[in-house]
């Protein structure tokens, strides 16, 4: 009997924490309530995104995901034909093709289909937060995640990171609730949305394997390890965390059979893997990734509040202290977070914030739980952070960032659409000098920018070396469609730190675009159309009196 008592002793803190939380949390949501919540989230997202739904496709949407989905829609091919193949699995593209088959091809249908996935992701995250903590925290955290600029903008864009994050939330929920085959299913869907989603089950696999090995060698219950290890009586085994890898392996095998390449085209693999595995670049990328987790677009306010709250004692409801998230659940979130930070610091040519969408909401959840547990007026802090997130949608930060992370992307799309219409009206037969992604915008009418394709000569960007190359090919074009390929704030932070500028150029693809006036002067043309907004511009330059 004594031995049996010792075996059950480590699990008692979890029972106590759950009992203290019982008045706030029901174990499961009935299906009708889940359907109602999904409808609520979807309606809210549709209302907030209404001005964006008919916009033409932006950047990577236009460059890869929409062409890949369109190829599947038209030909049934899982491997894209009209754009260089990457290793991205086809689940999201298949969803878009299905939506087009049902409702017709248009940006409105595309973006609405993506909002449905975003609403499903929010539902999964709400249930995850509720299972980890309580309903109050779940509502507050889900609200913050929904309006966090990166999540909000990705909600309607035809890209794969948010769907992968959404399925990861559902998989983590199944992991916490110890539903092993749901763990397999949701993680498999996550990896078939984006290959990097395999990081989460791999991290949990390693963590659970270590816990198993430590449990075999532990001599007594005095160690703190049992508190941060998964409960020993769970049905979810290592095999359930390993099985999602088979879905990814199956896709790689199919991709190799069709293309002769396992990991996408050689250029894709070089840009995202070969060139990033540099011992100096990885720690620099890690610093940027860490900032994206704790400070990006107002997250620093939540992080600061959470850190300060840690110095306060827990508050009590009656005589019962407010419980924390169970330590083993916190450990599960932490291991996934750390795995993503290191993995995304080692791969990925562009250090985009959307790559961390599976883990940033987990950080928000932990901080909100900390505030609820320790701060009396925690709702005011959450409201302040929410205001900061909303401001981040409209106000650009004083440093370079990806335009897709807030409403700056709308400015880009609107300016490019106006310039394309100007070209179509004034010079429909022009041979146009430009750079990607405008080269796709002008040659693929189904992207929504122009009704007829143009003949295009493509540059890499509008830096001085590229403009010099364009000058040598002067007879091959008679118009130039030029634009800012990077966001440039008026007075960027660290602008006088030349060492950092050199590091960005060497490791992160940074370059400085010449102004439209400088480009016109160097190429011997004149500007006939120009639009500018904060940190962005677009212009059309002619090289003849007729403008054609």
Write a brief structural summary.
Helices cover 59% and strands 6% of the residues.
Unreliable segments (pLDDT under 50, ≥5 consecutive)? 1-26
In round numbers, the mean pLDDT is: 90
> How would a textbook summarize the main sheet?
5 strands, mixed
Radius of gyration: 25 Å
What gap, in angstroms, lies between the N and C termini? 93 Å
Shape: globular
How many DSSP-defined strands? 7
Q: SS-based structural class?
A: alpha/beta
The count of domains is 2
Task: Determine the strand fraction and express it as a percent band.
Answer: 5-15%
Q: Going across the biggest sheet, name each strand in turn.
A: 4-3-5-7-6
In DSSP terms (H or I, runs of 4 or more residues), the helix count works out at 25
What helical percentage do the residues reach? 55-70%
What does this protein structure show overall?
The protein folds into 2 domains: about 400 residues, no CATH class; about 140 residues, Rossmann fold (3-Layer(aba) Sandwich). Helix 6 packs parallel to helix 9. The N terminus is likely disordered. It is built from 25 helices and 7 strands. With about 550 residues, it is α/β, with parallel strands linked by helices. The chain has a 5-stranded mixed β-sheet with strand order 4-3-5-7-6, with helices on both faces. Helices cover about 60% and strands about 5% of the residues. It is globular, with a radius of gyration of 25 Å.
Descriptive tags:
alpha/beta, 2 domains, two-stranded antiparallel sheet, 7 strands, globular, disordered N terminus
């Amino acid at each position: 009997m004594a031995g049996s008592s010792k075996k059950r002793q480590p699990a008692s803190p979890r029972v106590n924490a759950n009992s203290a939380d019982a008045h706030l949390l029901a174990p499961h949501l009935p299906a009708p309530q889940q359907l109602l919540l999904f409808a609520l989230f979807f309606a809210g997202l549709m209302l907030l995104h209404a001005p964006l739904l008919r916009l033409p496709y932006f950047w990577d949407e236009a460059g890869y995901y929409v062409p890949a989905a369109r190829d599947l829609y038209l030909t049934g091919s899982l491997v894209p034909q009209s754009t260089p193949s990457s290793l991205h699995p086809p689940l999201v593209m298949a969803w878009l093709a299905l939506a087009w088959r049902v409702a017709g091809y248009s940006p409105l249908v595309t973006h609405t289909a993506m909002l449905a996935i975003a609403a499903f992701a929010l539902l999964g995250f709400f249930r995850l937060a509720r299972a980890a903590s309580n309903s109050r925290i779940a509502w507050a955290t889900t609200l913050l995640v929904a309006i966090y600029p990166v999540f909000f903008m990705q909600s309607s864009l035809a890209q794969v990171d948010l769907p992968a994050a959404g399925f990861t939330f559902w998989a983590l929920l199944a992991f916490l609730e110890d539903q092993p085959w749901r763990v397999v299913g949701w993680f498999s869907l996550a990896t078939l949305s984006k290959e990097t989603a395999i990081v989460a089950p791999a991290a949990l696999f390693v963590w659970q394997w270590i816990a198993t090995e430590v449990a075999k060698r532990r001599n007594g219950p005095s160690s703190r390890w049992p508190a941060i290890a998964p409960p020993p009586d769970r049905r979810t085994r290592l095999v359930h965390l390993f099985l999602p890898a088979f879905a990814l392996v199956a896709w790689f095998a199919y991709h190799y059979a069709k293309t002769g390449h396992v990991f996408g085209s050689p250029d894709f693999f070089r840009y995202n893997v070969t060139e990033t595995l540099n011992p100096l670049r990885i720690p620099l990328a890690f610093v940027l990734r860490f900032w994206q987790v704790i400070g990006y677009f107002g997250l620093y306010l939540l992080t600061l509040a959470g850190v300060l709250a840690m110095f306060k004692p827990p508050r009590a409801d009656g005589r019962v202290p407010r419980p924390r998230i169970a330590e083993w659940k916190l450990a599960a979130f932490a291991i996934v977070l750390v795995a993503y930070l290191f993995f995304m610091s080692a791969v990925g040519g562009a250090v985009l914030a959307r790559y961390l969408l599976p883990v940033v909401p987990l950080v928000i959840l932990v901080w909100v739980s900390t505030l609820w547990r320790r701060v009396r007026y925690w709702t005011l802090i959450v409201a302040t952070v929410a205001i900061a997130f909303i401001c981040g949608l409209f106000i650009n930060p004083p440093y370079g960032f990806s335009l897709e992370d807030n409403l700056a992307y709308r400015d880009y799309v609107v300016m490019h659409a106006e310039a394309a219409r100007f070209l179509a009206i004034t010079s429909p037969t022009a041979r146009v000098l430009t750079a990607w992604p405008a080269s796709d915008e002008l040659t693929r009418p189904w992207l929504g920018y122009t009704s007829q394709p143009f003949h295009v000569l493509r540059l890499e960007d509008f830096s001085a070396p590229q403009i010099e190359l364009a000058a040598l090919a002067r007879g091959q074009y008679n118009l130039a469609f030029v634009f800012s390929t990077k966001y440039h704030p008026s007075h960027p932070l660290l602008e006088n730190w030349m060492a950092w500028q050199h590091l960005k150029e060497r490791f992160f693809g940074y370059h400085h675009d010449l102004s439209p006036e400088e480009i016109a002067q160097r190429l011997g043309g004149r500007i006939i159309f120009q639009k500018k907004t904060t940190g962005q511009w677009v212009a059309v330059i002619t090289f003849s009196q007729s403008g054609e």
